[in-house]
Amino acid sequence: MKLSFTTLGCPGWSLDQIVRNAVEYGFDAIDFRGLQGEMNVWKLPELSTNVKESLALIKDAGLKVSCFSSSVQAVSAEKFEQNLEEVKEYTRLCEAFGTPYIRVFGGKIGDLDRTEATRLIVKHLKEMAQIAAASGAKVLVETHDDWTDCRYMQPVMEQVNHEGAGVLWDLHHPYRTIGEKPEDTWNALGQWIEYTHVKDSVKVDGTGRRHPHKYVLTGQGDIPLKGMFQLLKDKGYEGYYVYEWEKAWYLEELEEPEVAFPQYAQYMRSASEELR
């Protein structure tokens, strides 16, 4: 198993800390989703004027940058130009770091009917995919928000039909939020799945909470992770298993990254040994 983590889980760490701890805990790569409070990481010196030094730091540590996770909401017509510029910024970073992927969200469809929303996201993703592909990268649409359901995502990918577009399977969201069976997700989207997010949770009373579930340390919830890993192995998946510990969004509720990250890496090593 190739292990990565998103920096959403360590919002207080500097780049030096990220690299040092990634090595210590046994990760193979880093997925940039913010850095010390700045979500648009291309604005930071570490990923602009000092990019050569940052690349050397990461490469010398034996690590890779597996993905740049954007805030792009691909369905949005209002923010389309802004989203294109963001994709261009991340494409530049993909070139610099040898990174293959840019994560995008499908986004909320609001008052749009599903047919119009599908038309818009297909149109927008084709343009984003063309920009990414010109530099050898891909935009990956996450199974998230109004595109969690594989029945909505499948026709999008069929119509986009571009080498510069793929799917990021967040193993948690389809199962937890709509009860989608992992086998159904794979059967619908497997040909496009190149990247995964891993997290665990338990159901809770949703009153006063953002979601009716609570994130917990890996293996301590009831997401059938090991079954998902077996499915992925059986289907020939060779991509990253990326820990998405949403510490930045749940600062007081979630364990510190110094606890959660090494626990994840240990759990995944054990799970890997158990796979048939």
Write the SSE topology:
Blueprint: E1 2-6, H1 15-25, E2 29-32, H2 51-60, E3 64-73, H3 80-97, E4 101-105, H4 114-133, E5 138-142, H5 150-160, E6 165-170, H6 173-178, H7 182-189, E7 193-198, E8 200-203, E9 213-216, H8 225-234, E10 240-243, H9 257-274
Parallel strand pairs: 1-2, 1-10, 2-3, 3-4, 4-5, 5-6, 6-7, 7-10
Antiparallel strand pairs: 8-9
Helix pairs in contact: 3-4, 4-5, 5-7
Protein architecture, described:
The chain has helices at 15-25, 51-60, 80-97, 114-133, 150-160, 173-178, 182-189, 225-234, 257-274; strands at residues 2-6, 29-32, 64-73, 101-105, 138-142, 165-170, 193-198, 200-203, 213-216, 240-243. The protein has 276 residues and is α/β, with parallel strands linked by helices. It has one domain (2-274): Alpha-Beta Barrel (TIM Barrel). The strands form 2 sheets. The chain has an 8-stranded parallel barrel with strand order 1-2-3-4-5-6-7-10, surrounded by 5 helices. The chain has a two-stranded antiparallel ribbon with strand order 8-9. The longest helix has 20 residues, at 114-133. The mean pLDDT is 97. This is Sugar phosphate isomerase/epimerase.
**Text of the CATH class:** Alpha Beta
Give Rg in angstroms: 18 Å
- The share of residues in helices is 40-55%
Question: Mean pLDDT, nearest integer?
Answer: 97
Order of helices and strands: EHEHEHEHEHEHHEEEHEH
Note the overall shape.
globular
Largest sheet: 8 strands, parallel, barrel
Low-pLDDT residue spans: none
Total count of helical runs of at least 4 residues: 9
The CA-CA distance between the termini, in Å, is 13 Å
Protein name: Sugar phosphate isomerase/epimerase
Keywords: Isomerase
Organism: Paenibacillus radicis
GO molecular function: isomerase activity
